[in-house]
Amino acid sequence: MTEREMSALNLVNRYSLYSAGVGLIPVPLVDMAGVAAIQVKMLSELAAVYDVPFSANRGKSIVAALLGGIAPTSMAASGFGQLFRAIPVVGQMFGFLTVSLFATAATWAVGRVFIQHFESGGTFLNFDPAKAGKMVQDEFEKAKTAGARSKSANATA
């Protein structure tokens, strides 16, 4: 792995953690808006690492398209998380963790896909969210699985 890839991966890790924190915001939709803003900021920093011109408007539309691609298959869990927040204590904890996990995995997936895209010489102008949708979904599933393994390993330690 090159130094540039390592730097980009460190950015994705950092922004994934930021998303985890924002996923804990107890206000539905505000948390997801915060995650989208974090992802746009992450894309701007990844663009700087790869010397790719960044447009905030293009970044916002790409993030919206990518999150829209993840949402139909994954928002059920996040939606249940939002609903469970209404149940005192236990439901609130479950809801926060579910939304936080979704936010972390989604940010990781978007970041990983852009690292691959930029590494192959891509830019924002030739990025096709529709074509990248499968890659984002695959990375999202990997991140969710890794998060679940990490949590269960911590619980048994």
Helices and strands, with pairings:
Elements: H1 3-22, H2 30-49, H3 56-84, H4 90-119, H5 129-156
Helix pairs in contact: 1-2, 1-4, 2-3, 2-4, 3-4, 3-5, 4-5
Explain this structure to me?
The chain has 157 residues and is an all-alpha fold. The protein has one domain. The chain contains five helices and no strands. The protein has helices spanning 3-22, 30-49, 56-84, 90-119, 129-156. The protein is globular and about 50 Å long. The model is unreliable at 72-78 and 151-157 (pLDDT under 50).
What is the strand tally?
Answer: 0
**In angstroms, what is the radius of gyration?**
16 Å
Number of domains: 1
| Major sheet characteristics | none
Strand content: under 5%
Average of pLDDT? 81
Straight-line distance between termini: 31 Å
Which descriptors would you attach to this protein?
mainly alpha; globular; disordered C terminus
Short description:
The protein is mainly alpha-helical. The protein has helices at 3-22, 30-49, 56-84, 90-119, 129-156.
